[in-house]
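Box S2. Input/output pair 1.
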Amino acid sequence: MSAAADFHKRLHGEIGALRVDPLGYVMYAFPWGVPGTALADEQGPEPWQRDILERLGDGLIGTEEAVRAAVASGHGVGKSALVSWIVLWALSTCKDTRGIVTANTEGQLRTKTWPELAKWYGLCINRSWFTYSATALASTLPGHEKTWRVDAITWSENNIEAIAGLHNKGRRAFAVFDEASSIPDGIWETIEGALTDARTELFWCVFGNPTRNAGRFRECFAGGRFAHRWQPIQVDSRSVSMTNKAQIAEWVKDYGEDSDFIRVRVRGVFPRAGDQQFIDGERVDAAIARELVAGPETPLIMGVDIARQGGDQTVIRFRQGLDARSIPAVKFRIPDLMQVASRVLEQVERHKPAAVFVDATGIGWGVFDRLAQLGCEGLVAVDFGGKADRTDGGAAGDAKALYANKRSEMWGFLKDWCKVGCLPDDRDLAADLTGVEYGYDAANALQLERKQDMRRRGLASPDDGDALALTFAYPVAQRCEAEERCFEERLQALKRRIV
C-alpha cells in the first residue's frame, strides 16, 4: 500500500472514531498552533465552544430524541466559527449525513455564515472529501452527492418543502440556525416536524444574539415553554478572549451594565423590551404609501441635522402636521460651517417655517451661533444628549423619564407620528428610520443606540432620520398674520445684510 493510500485509510479510521466526539474532531481536523497556518497563534476553541461541543457529543450517546442546543450570546464570541465546526464534524464522521443551515436573513447566511464555513473548510484536514459551493457542501464520493450533504437554505414560503424534507432515516440529520432570534416560529415548527425519524442521529443547534424577548428562540431558555427540551447556554462577550474589552467597557460606561443594549450585545441576556429595531419597516412602508389628505392648517417646522464627518451629510427636513412629503429634503456635504449656515438660511427665507430646530450637538453649535448672529427667525438649539421633557405622568418629584435623552424622545414622537403621517418615498430616509436600534438604560428609560455604534454595525449615520426627528423637538404654535408680516420684514432685512 502506498504512503498516500495508507494516510487516507488512517484518516478515515481516526475521523470515523470521532462520531460522537465533536470536540475531538475540531482538535484533530484543524492545524491549531501549526506555524505558517492561519491558526499558528491559536490553541483551540474557547471554553464556551468546548462546552457546546461536549454537550452535543454526550447528547448523541444513548438517546432517540433530537439533541437540542441553544446559545444566546453577546457580539463577537465566535458563533459562526462554531457553526462551521459542527457542520464539518457532522458530515465527516457519519456517511450520508443530511443537514441544513439557515439564518435570519439571506444576507446573514450568504455573507457571514456560509463564508465562515468556507474558511474552516479550507483549513480542514479532510476537505478533499467534500465540494464547497455557494449553497451546499456535498460529498465527492460518486453517487453520494445528493445523500451526503448540507445545504444553505434561505427560509420563505417558496422553499418550505426544502426545509421540511430533511428526513434521513437510519443515518444522521441535523439543522443549524444562525441569528435564530429573528427566525419566524413557522420555520421552527417545520424543523420540529422534520427531525422525527426513529433510529436516526438527530441534533438541532440554534445560535443568536437575544434581540427579542418573545418567540421560539426566547422559549428555549429559562422560563420558556420549550426550555425543558433544550440545553441552553448564555455567553457574555467579556468571557471570550477575542473580544474588544476596551470597547465593551466604553459601552458599559455609556449605557449602563443593566441596560438592554448591554444585556443583548454583551451579556447574552434577553432584553426587557422586544426587538431592538425601534421603528419597524411595516410602519414606514405604510407612511410612504398613505394618501396625503389636506387637513387643518398647521405650522411648518424645519429640522436641520449637521454633518460631523466626511461620510455624513447635513440634512434639512420639513414637516407640516401630518405632511413630511410635500417639501423635499435638502442634503449636502459642505465642511465650512459658515457656508452650511448660509444654505440653511436660504431655506428659511424660501419656506418661512414657524420654527427652525437645529442639531446643536458638537459642531452644530457653530452653525447655530452663526444663524443666531444673522437673526434667523424661529431658531431653536436642540441638544441631542440633553434631558428629555416627556415623563410617565407621575406626580411632581415622582415622575419618571420615558426617554434617556432628547434625541430618544424626538424619535419616540416620530415613531408615533408614523402611524398617521405621510413620508416621502425616499430610500435613504427609510433606511435611516428602520436602521436605528434601541434599549433601556439603568433607570429603565428608552435609549437609542449612538451613531458611532451604528457605524460599527456597518450602517451609515442616520442624518436624514435625525433631521426629521428634529421637527418633533418642541411644540410649535401657528403664527398669526401680524407675526408673518414681521417675519417677512426681518427676512428681507437679513437678506440685505448677507448681500
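Box S3. Input/output pair 2.
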Amino acid sequence: MNNQTKTVAFHTLGCKLNFSETSTIARNLKDSGYQKVEFTDPANVYVINTCSVTANADKECRTIVKNAMKANPEGFVVIVGCYAQLKPQEIAEMEGVDLVLGAAEKFNIAEYLDDLNKKEETIVHSCEIEEADFYVGSYSIGDRTRAFLKVQDGCDYKCTYCTIPLARGISRSDTVENVIKNANEIAERGIKEIVLTGVNIGDYGKGEFGNKKHEHTFFELVQELDQVEAIERIRISSIEPNLLKNETIDFVSKSNRFVPHFHIPLQSGNDEILKKMKRRYLSNLYLDRVSKIREVMPHACIGVDVIVGFPGETEELFMETYNFINELPISYLHVFTYSERDNTEAIDFEGVVDQGERKRRNKMLRILSEKKRQAFYQSQLGSTQKVLWEHDNKDGKMFGFTENYVKVQTEFNAEFVNQTHLVDLVRINHNGIVEVKINELELAK
C-alpha cells in the first residue's frame, strides 16, 4: 500500500455546506498523498459525508455504504457529517463501516487512516458537541462553474424540529479576512460564481469558543465581498427572514457582484405553527421581507423552504400555509415532509399528522412550486439577461443560469463553457427550461 498511490472516493449527502466541506476534506487528503477517484471505482478509502435533516437521509447512508462495498469489498469506509455526530453508534452497527468521525474530527481525517485494513469492529471518534467550538473554513471547487464558500457553522436557534445544533454545535464564523482570502483563491482557479453557505449565515460574525459577540455583521461581510473584483457573481444561499435586513436587500439591489436571488426559509405560513416551531418571526415579517425585495428588485428570484405535516398542523392550518404561499410573489419552493427526530422537542408534541396526509400535502406544495416557477420564468421571457454557462453537454445542449436563477439552454458550444453571455429569453420548452438566443450586442463583440 505504501509503495503505490492510495485512492479515495467521496459521496456527499445533504446541503451545500456539506459539499464545501467534502471538497476541503478531499484537498486535505490529496495533500496527504491520496488520489481522488469516482465513487463507483474500486478505491482504498470511501468517505461518505452524511446529512440528518430527515429520516430518509439516514436510510440513504446505508444504501451508499452498500454501494461502496460493491465497488470494493475491501475498501475502508469512513462516515462523517451530521448523522455521524448525532448517531455514531447506530452507524457503527452498519455492515461495512470501519470508521466514524464526529464534527470535531472530520477535518483531521488523514490522522485516522494509518491502517486501511477492514475492521471487525467499527472505530468511533466522536466528540461531545460542546467541543465543536472551533471554526474550519472550507469551499468546494472543481466540479462546477460555481463554488460553495462556507462562512459560518453551527446554530444557536432552538427550532423544535431541528437536530442541526446537536450535530454542528454553536454558531461561529470565519474571519472576514479569511473569507476574502478564500474568495480570491476560488477566483484564481477561474471560477466565476460563489455561493455563500453556512448553517445560519445571517448570524455571521460570532467568534469561536462560544463568543456570542458579533465581531462583524453579515452586512459588513457582504460589503467586503463586493470588493473582490476577480469574482463575477456572488449568491446568498438560505438566510433567515429575521436576519435579512433592509440594508442588505438595498445593497444587493445596487451591487456589482451580488445577484438578485434570495432563498428564505418560511417553514409555515401559519403563526400558531411558527410559534410551536420556535421560529423567530411571524408570517407578517416574512411578507414584509418578500415585499421589500420585490420593491427594489422586481425581477429577483425568491426561493422558499416549507415543512408539511408538523405536529398540530390540521388541514385548516395547512391550507393557511398553502394560501399564504400561493399569494406570495415568490419563484419556487423546497418542500420538506416533517419527520420525527430523536432529542427534539417536537417529537413529544401532540397532533401527529398521518404519513399519507404528510405525503399528500407535500405533493400539493410541489405542484404549487412548479406553477410558481413556470409563472416566474414566463415573466422573464423577452428580457435580456447575463448567463453563466456550465460544462455539461446533454444531447448537444448546454445549460446555464441567469443572475436571477432562471435555468436556460442553447446549442452546445465548447467555447461558451464557464463564460458569461448576454442572451435573450425566448420560450419555455417542454422540460420547463428557457430556450435562449445570444443577444446581438454579444455577437457584435
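Caption for Box S3: The first strand starts at residue 6 and ends at 12. The first helix runs from residue 16 to 31.
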